Amino acid sequence: IPSIEQGSEDLEQDMSLVCVLGIEDPLRVEVSQAVRDCQGAGIVVRMVTGDNVLTAKNIAKKCGILTDDGTAIEGPQFAAMSANEQMDILPRLQVMARCSPMDKLTLVKRLKE
User: Residue range 24-51: average pLDDT?
Assistant: First the structure.
């Protein structure tokens, strides 16, 4: 193994990746039941998060928020839509990922209209 004094170029030669590690933060036990209780009471549950859309979709499916006919989008995609397009997507919108506080505010305004 080359020494540090030889520089990083020498250190970055003839190396192999030994391991890839993934971490999952499991859902709390009560989350899925809470979502079902809300849905049973007629409440439309939506996930609005700063997470990556793939992560958000996976979590939303596990806890019963995202269904086969539901839509998951990213905040910038929602922000780029016209007000009419935003209104059109609302009935199917179940997950909005990578969203900013302004995206959240716009979503709430549209839901109130």
Answer: 94
Q: What percent of the chain has pLDDT over 70?
A: 89
Task: Please name the amino acid found at residue 92.
Answer: R
pLDDT of residue 2: 55
The three-state (H, E, C) secondary structure of the chain, written as one string: CCCHHHCHHHHCCCCCCCCCCCCCCCCCHHHHHHHHHHHHCCCCCCEECCCCHHHHHHHHHHCCCCCCCCEEEEHHHHHCCCHHHHHHHCCCEEEEECCCHHHHHHHHHHHHC
Which residue did the predictor score with more confidence, 44 or 11? 44
Q: What are phi and psi of 86, to 5 degrees?
A: -60, -45
Phi, psi of 56, deg, nearest 5: -60, -45
